Structures are given as structure tokens and as C-alpha cells.
Amino acid sequence: MPNYKKKKHHSQHKHGHQTKSTKKDCENDDDTLQSGWSKLYEIKTSEMMGRYLVATKPIKPGDVLIEESPLVVGPPTEYGPVCLGCLKKVVFPQSQCKCPGCHWPICSQPCEKLNQDHGHTNFECNFLREKNVVQFIEKYGDNDLKVAYEIIFPLRCLLLKLHDKSKWEQLMEMEAHNDIRKNITWLWTRNQTRIVNRIRNEWKIDDFTEEEIHTVCGIIEVNCFEVGHEGAKGRALYPTSFLMAHDCSSNSTHTDNPENFSMQIRAMRDIKKGESITVNYGYILMGTLKRRERLNMGKFFWCACQRCSDPTEFGTYCSALKCSSCSNGILLSTNPLDQQAEWKCLKCSHTIEAKHISSMLDKLFDQLDSIDPHDVKGQEMFIERYGNILGSNHYLILSAKYDLCQLYGRAEDFLVDSLSEDLLKHKEDYCRDVLKVVKVLEPGLSRVKGIVMYELHVPLLLLAGQRLRKEQINKSEFMKCLKEVVSLLEESSKILKMEPGQKEQEMAHGAEMALMTLKLQKLL
Ligand SMILES: C[S@@+](CC[C@H](N)C(=O)[O-])C[C@H]1O[C@@H](n2cnc3c(N)ncnc32)[C@H](O)[C@@H]1O
């Protein structure tokens, strides 16, 4: 299905942004050697995608393409009361700590993240105090409180119009897709009642027009990144990173620093000169039908990338369903770029309408989603129950396996020392199943790959030791296993070291410690 958007108002930017290059990149380039900075990309425009970034020279895996502070950061949607400084949850109305200026609840006295450029600025504090918005917060119930905190992010964007013209102009450069969004009645009405009417009618803030508020809502929906980690989650807009186009098998990745929400975009694999630089707006372990539906609902375009165009998704078959009419047949979409195209068995030609597939996938997704992420037995039951309908590489099965490969060894009752040989083998199998697919869908320095590689080293190392002791394998077979362990540890530590999240940092550290221990034991 083609993308119907028109991009009339985008001017073509010919300049590349100044970006930091890695040492490796500098070594190949005299200019860069002198400055330490390099223009790695330029901005181009296409009818279908609007503006997007294109490499102006060959880029290596791990090269940093963009590193920047946010323009604005705010609370997520549907989340509830958070500290206006650090975005950590606060318990309302019990919270004792209040911002000394506007009296909104904060996490501690003082929260050191108050008065930051992109968050609860002095300007915002004075503005909220003058309008006495806290009076509403104090009388709201749970639902209204969630809405009130959802307004903070658009309000922060709008306040730039009053106190930071240059940032406001940068924001107004971003796509809002008002023409498309106006025709999505539920979305426009939701924004009208939850955001526009609250700001203008209830909070009596008349500094912004309805159109301006809707536009800011659109800019957020189209361009914002979900940021933060456990404890402090948020949404943020960045001056340059928003330009990255989407690809379901992207060549770059993004991470935000939990301390200050600064954004880093890095290449995951080799990018050729002239190739577009892409990130994945979604989640790698999701099948084409639902992935495209989500991208269209959330980002307002129908993706037609190579992965979406290929019914087998590069031979991974991660959307394929088992045929109920014959044995060993599998069903695939007859045209993955058409959401309505029927699905057909490759063996017996049995067909099913796309709408039935879609509603079944929704039901199964809801079931998987309702399982506590720490519930080993629940996830196992999901695989057992639906493995016969969904293919073994199906993305819903792989999602459960991805959770399980991290749970075995960590979850209560499944700590690593208590895992039987069978369960260790089970963990190994799940890791291998996920890794096989992720290596194809996200080759290179992929975070998911780094995590699974780290997880895989555990059963391999323990099983090899047990088997050597029981004389089920000899020394040279043991050394062969160790070789795989070492390569997994080296690769996962290389990938995860680049990720600022605490979990990834701990794994990278764990991988390095494991390598050191092997060296000390003179096994390497
Ligand atoms: C975050 S913005 C990216 C910057 C945008 N192209 C611009 O010019 O402002 C996201 C929007 O870019 C467009 N876009 C990004 N990736 C695309 C893709 N793979 N195919 C079609 N449109 C895409 C869509 O219009 C989407 O809503």
C-alpha cells in the first residue's frame, strides 16, 4: 500500500549537521583528523518520507551520528503524577514535598533536576504559579490527574513560544501531520477534550490558539522519543534526531542517557555513502501486519521497507502461521503491503481473510501482554498453548522466549545455581531461537542481540563444565564450547557497553568479569 502523504511545505536542507565521529572514522579522513568532527550525513527530502538523513561518507558500526540534548522533556501519557523535575513517580496527594515556586509535588526537597533547560524551568514554575494550576491538581481524582500530567509535555512545548523563540522555531519546523490527524476523529477529539479544552477552558490559559495546541500535540505524536528507564520515564523531542526516517530493519539505533535524557544515535552496521540513515520507530520482534498498523496509527504512514515488502521477512517467517487445513503447511500474507490481502497456505492454498488474522493476533497479543513479565510458568504456558497455531519463529512466541531467556537464571525459583541441566538446555534453546532471528532482522550492534548473547553464554558455560566433569565431553570439545562462550561475551560486551541503561551496563560489566575469570583460570 503506497504512502499517500504529501510534503509540500518541506524545504530541502542541503547542509549536514556537525556530528562527532569516532576515532576510527577520523583515521580515514584528513579533514576529520584535523577537526575531530565530521559531516557524516546530509538532509534530503522525498515526496514519500519528507526529510531524511543520508550518509555523506561510509559509516562504520558504532560510529556516533548524533549526540544532543533534548529541546523538551515531559511525562509520558496515561502515567499519573510524577516529579516535575526528574519525572520519578510521586504519590499524590500524600507526597509531602512541593516545588517552592508553583507548589506542584516533587520527589524530594530539593529535586536536583528542577530548573533544567528542557524540563521544569523557572519560566514554567512562575507560569504555573501565576495561573494557579495547582488548585486543579489538588481536587482531581486519578483519571483527571493522569490527564493533567499528560498536558505538561505539550504545555512545555507551548511555553517555548513565550520564552525561547529559537527553540519554538525549531519545534515548529517539525511535522505535525495536522491534515491527516484532523481526519482521525477519535484522535482529534481526544486531544480536543483532554488537552485543548483543559488548557484553554479549565486552566484558563489563553496564550495559545486551539490550532497551536493541536499542532504541538501532532509534533509530539509524530516526533517524540520515549525516554528514561525504570524509575523515571518520559517523552522527549530533539532538535536533529527527529529527522531520522524509519526502517523495520534499521541500520542505526538510538539510546538516551538516563541522567540527562541526552540522545545518542549510533550506526549498528556499515552504512554506505548515499544510503539513508534509519532507526526503528517500533519493536523488532513484531510481525508485519501489526507493525505496519501501529506505524500508521502512531506515526501516520504505511511502511513499505524491504522487510515489510517480503512476506517471509528475510526468511525468518516471523509472521507465519501454521495451517489448520493441512499438516506442515504455513500461511503467509499474499501481499504484505496490503493490510487487506488474504493469507494463503504455501502447501494446500487454504486462505484466510486478513481481518480474521488481525483479530486473532490482537487477542493473542493481549493474552501475552497480560502475563506478568516475571511469570516464568505463565510465559511457558503461552508457548505451549499457542505454539501449535503460531509458527515456532512467530514473533509472539519469540517475544515470550526473549522474556524467558532472561528469566531463567534470574527469576525467583529459577536462579542460576538452581537450574537443572534440562532448564539450562531450555534457556540455551530459547536464546538460540531468538538470536537466529534477531541476527537477520537487526544485524550488527543490536541491543537485543547483545542481551541474548550475554544470556546464552550462561547455559553454555555451565553445561560445558558439567559435561566435562561427567566425562560426557572431552577437553577439546570443552574448549570448543569455551570458544563460543568467549565470542558471545566479547560481542555482547562490545554492544552493551555502548548502551547507557543500568541493565545493559551491568551485563556488559558481567561479560567483562566473566572473560577475566576465564583468563585467570587459564582457560583462555
Ligand atoms: C519523526 S518524523 C521524521 C522526519 C520527517 N520526515 C520530516 O520531514 O519532518 C516521522 C515522519 O516521517 C515520515 N517517515 C519516516 N519514515 C518513513 C518511512 N519509512 N516511510 C514513509 N514515511 C516515513 C512519516 O511522515 C512520519 O510521520
Automatic annotation (TrEMBL):
<dbReference type="GO" id="GO:0008276">
    <property type="term" value="F:protein methyltransferase activity"/>
</dbReference>
<feature type="domain" description="SET">
    <location>
        <begin position="31"/>
        <end position="282"/>
    </location>
</feature>
<dbReference type="InterPro" id="IPR053010">
    <property type="entry name" value="SET_SmydA-8"/>
</dbReference>
<protein>
    <recommendedName>
        <fullName>SET domain-containing protein</fullName>
    </recommendedName>
</protein>
<dbReference type="InterPro" id="IPR046341">
    <property type="entry name" value="SET_dom_sf"/>
</dbReference>
<dbReference type="Pfam" id="PF00856">
    <property type="entry name" value="SET"/>
</dbReference>
<dbReference type="InterPro" id="IPR001214">
    <property type="entry name" value="SET_dom"/>
</dbReference>
<dbReference type="GO" id="GO:0008170">
    <property type="term" value="F:N-methyltransferase activity"/>
</dbReference>
<dbReference type="GO" id="GO:0008757">
    <property type="term" value="F:S-adenosylmethionine-dependent methyltransferase activity"/>
</dbReference>
<feature type="compositionally biased region" description="Basic residues">
    <location>
        <begin position="1"/>
        <end position="21"/>
    </location>
</feature>
<feature type="region of interest" description="Disordered">
    <location>
        <begin position="1"/>
        <end position="29"/>
    </location>
</feature>
